[in-house]
Amino acid sequence: QVQLVESGGGLVQAGGSLRLSCAASGRTFSTYDMGWFRQAPGKEREFVAVIRWSGDSTYYADSATGRFTISRDNAKNTMDLQMNSLKPEDTAVYYCAARQNWKAGSLRYRSTYDYWGQGTQVTVSS
C-alpha cells in the first residue's frame, strides 16, 4: 500500500515556474514507477511525465517536453515536477501516481497505475 500526497500547486503568471512535490508513504517507494497526470475542467485526465523506479528513465508528454522536469529521491520517498515557462493551458489539477515496476503496459496509460494522490491545483493566469 502506498499513500501519495501532492504539494506545491498555486497561482502563477504565464511564463512563471512552479515545483510540485509528491510525498509517498511506505518502504517500497523505490519499486514503483512514478508519474504525473493532470486534469483540466471538462477534460480527461492526461499523462504529463513519468520516471522509472530506478530514476534512470523519464518520459514526457509532448506538451511538457522542454519545459517540465521530473525527478525522484528514493531515499526520501519523494518525486518532484519542475514546471517552467508555464502557459494558461497548463491550468489543471495535477496528480501523482504510482505503478509497480513489474507491470506491463504503457507508462502513459493512467489505467495501469495503482495508487493516486488527491491532486494539487495549478492555475496559470495570462
List the helices and strands and how they pair.
Blueprint: E1 4-7, E2 10-13, E3 18-24, E4 32-39, E5 46-51, E6 58-60, E7 68-73, E8 78-83, E9 92-100, E10 115-116, E11 120-125
Parallel strand pairs: 2-11
Antiparallel strand pairs: 1-3, 3-8, 4-5, 4-9, 5-6, 7-8, 9-10, 9-11
Describe this entry's structure for a reader.
The protein has strands spanning 4-7, 10-13, 18-24, 32-39, 46-51, 58-60, 68-73, 78-83, 92-100, 115-116, 120-125. By secondary structure, the protein is mainly beta. Strands 2, 4, 5, 6, 9, 10 and 11 form a 7-stranded mixed beta sheet that branches. A hairpin with a 6-residue loop joins strand 4 (32-39) and strand 5. The protein is globular and about 40 Å long.
